[in-house]
Design goal:
nine-stranded mixed β-sheet; 35% helix; UDP-N-acetylmuramoyl-L-alanine:D-glutamate ligase; alpha/beta; 20 strands; 3 domains
Length: 467
């Protein structure tokens, strides 16, 4: 493979958006160590970025913080944008007009990675599915690397990856934009589900769905597309990708498939047929989790993992932080953190997945241009108590609830206020569920801050209750 770093040596590179979740830091370090002339620019001031700045202290990196300078884009040869920066941002247009190449971490990584990559995307389920694949592959090969849209920089792990290292990337729609622009796709592409999301960023749902499906657009005949049969938008990739299709859910639709038969997970691959008893793991019992497990098994099998490794990982899986995460139990009431449910369809799945005790739902927040109906229908079916956090989406949610005669409390201006209201309504055996169905901006820094506040409060109350 041609050395991707050689193309960077001596190039003027601007990193737009350092951020605090690992990606910008990994990009800046990769570029500087490759010999590029690196400028890192971010709208945040230096004190808000103290940790990543300190981590780059041993490298010749120039920082422009608290704002951007057009000259850093007009004079750059390469501009690497953070996923939080929109593709049509005016400064990026200046860079393009000046002849700069626009990259993102994932386009740099896929070009440089010597190993075949599994990429996972979807409106919901992608973090759980990526994590499950990672655990299956780790049980098969402990060198496995899992990174991407989960706060883990892929580029920071590049040095440890060899030609046969298993690599799993969770990919957001924004990260896929860069791969599509550079006609790159992972060797094994997984789409979990495509439903309405980020319509405040994309022209419409079709534009968003097309971006998600682009994960398979540049695959070749030697690649694999893992696609769920029960999602029409995701399955559309089966008719457009050059890769061989691994169907999940219906063994009649492709030569290779994964499907559930009662409590048995069946895998048909390469002329063989495996039958794996599905474990009595409580984390994986909800229907959407079984579906995630089937998608993960398909991808892991396609990469070469053994039935024994896949079965062991399913039995041992303990879930993912911020996704249906049980953070405390107080007086028989479970506190469940599902802060990454930032779309109504994700919150709907969370509400329906709880079958013991009454649900006390904390929802609401910032508007992403999404129709709240899927979440409202689920609330109408399950009839939890509802506690809404203040935000631009909350008035539309509250109006839809009132139209169905569903009471709610709020809008709450803090997590503590919402949690206190939910706690007062709960009894032993119930579940307090944070599953907002909305973005977090306004009251919180981001969805992880929202989840951290929920976790911190619940665990503090738990300690107080037992002391």
């Amino acid at each position: 493979m041609r050395d991707a770093r050689a193309d960077l040596r001596g190039r003027r590179a601007t990193v737009m958006g350092l951020g605090t979740r690992g990606g910008g830091l990994g990009v800046a370090r990769y570029l500087a160590e490759a010999g590029a002339i690196v400028t890192v620019t971010d709208m945040k001031p230096a004190d808000a970025l103290a940790e990543p700045i300190a981590a780059l202290g041993d490298l010749p990196v120039r920082f422009v913080l608290g704002g951007h300078d057009e000259a850093d884009f007009r004079e750059a040869e390469i501009v690497v944008r953070n996923p939080g920066v929109r593709a049509n941002a005016p400064l990026l247009e200046i860079a393009r007009a000046s002849g700069a190449r626009i990259e993102m971490e994932m386009s740099l990584f896929l070009r440089a990675c010597p190993a075949p990559v599994i990429g996972v995307t979807g409106t919901k389920g992608k973090t759980t599915t990526s994590s499950l694949i990672g655990e299956m592959l780790t049980a098969w090969d402990p060198r496995t690397v899992v990174a991407g849209n989960m706060g883990i920089s892929a580029l920071e792990h590049l040095a440890e990856i060899t030609a046969d290292t298993p690599v799993v990337l969770e990919l957001s729609s924004w990260q896929l934009e860069a791969l599509d622009e550079h006609q790159l796709s992972p060797h094994i592409a997984v789409i979990t589900l495509i439903a309405e999301d980020h319509l405040n960023t994309y022209r419409d749902f079709d534009h968003y769905a097309e971006t998600k499906r682009s994960i398979t657009a540049h695959q070749s005949a030697g690649d694999v597309a893992v696609l769920p049969m029960d999602d029409a938008e995701a399955w559309r990739s089966a008719g457009t990708t050059a890769a061989r299709v691994f169907a999940v859910g219906d063994p009649a639709r492709s030569a290779e498939a994964v499907w559930m038969e009662d409590d048995t997970l069946r895998v048909r691959i390469g002329g063989g047929d495996w039958a794996l008893p599905f474990p009595a793991n409580p984390v994986l019992q909800p229907a959407h989790q079984r579906r995630n497990a089937a998608l993960a098994a398909a991808a892991a099998a396609a990469r070469g993992a053994t039935p024994e490794a896949i079965g062991a990982a399913l039995a041992q899986f303990r879930g993912v932080r911020d996704r249906m995460e049980v953070v405390a139990t107080i007086g028989g009431v479970r506190y469940v953190n599902d802060t990454t449910a930032t779309a109504p369809v994700a919150a709907a799945a969370a509400v329906r997945s709880i079958h013991e005790g009454r649900v006390h739902l904390i929802a609401g927040g910032a508007d992403k241009g999404l129709d709240p109906t899927p979440m409202i229908i689920a609330i109408d079916e399950v009839r939890p108590t509802v506690h809404l956090i203040d935000g631009t989406a909350t008035p539309r949610i509250s109006a839809a609830l009132e139209a169905r005669g569903i009471a709610w409390s709020g809008p709450h201006l803090s997590m503590e206020s919402a949690l206190i209201a939910a706690r007062e309504a709960a009894s032993s055996g119930d579940v307090i569920l944070l599953s907002p169905g909305c973005a977090s901006f306004g009251v919180f820094t981001d969805e992880f801050d929202r989840g951290a506040q929920f976790r911190t409060l619940a665990q503090r109350w738990e300690r107080e209750a037992t002391s």
